[in-house]
């Protein structure tokens, strides 16, 4: 995508089968929901522990208190909007731009890096 945006590869659009696009979008949506739910659950565990640790510090008279836990954000609505639009589309084929293809098919949304970074804080915990 960077090469496309940098002008090295011209932005273009292609025609795709609506049903194939819907299948991929729905699969990507389910994966996103699973990752979000796992990260959210781990966030709650870590937040509860952080609060217990803070309470212990306060009880010991420590005045240096700080907690920084990034809150996972769901982007399920982005998937729902794209899926809804396709479900309302009457044609069997739709035209998607390079950017839409990267989001809908390759699951590389503009928010993806920030989401992945936040989720990585909670993977395996």
Would you mind describing this structure in some detail?
There is one protein chain. The chain is mainly alpha-helical and 125 residues long. It has one domain (2-120). The protein is 60% helix and 8% strand. It has five helices and two strands. The protein has helices at 2-5, 18-59, 76-88, 98-104, 112-120, and strands at residues 13-17, 93-97. It has a two-stranded antiparallel sheet with strand order 1-2. The longest helix has 42 residues, at 18-59. The protein is elongated, with a radius of gyration of 20 Å. The chain starts with a helix and ends in a 5-residue tail after the last helix.
What structural category characterises the helix and strand content? mainly alpha
Strand tally, please?
A: 2
Shape assignment = elongated
Quickly count the domains: 1
Q: Helix share of residues?
A: 55-70%
DSSP helical segment count: 5
**What Rg, in angstroms, do the CA atoms define?**
20 Å
How far from one another are the termini?
32 Å
Largest sheet: 2 strands, antiparallel
Main sheet: strand order: 1-2
Q: Output the helix-strand order.
A: HEHHEHH
Proportion of residues in β-strands = 5-15%
Instruction: Please tell me the overall pLDDT.
Output: 92
Low-confidence stretches: none
Assembly state (oligomeric):
single chain
Tags for this entry?
mainly alpha, 125 residues, single chain, two-stranded antiparallel sheet
Topology readout:
Blueprint: H1 2-5, E1 13-17, H2 18-59, H3 76-88, E2 93-97, H4 98-104, H5 112-120
Antiparallel strand pairs: 1-2
Helix pairs in contact: 2-3
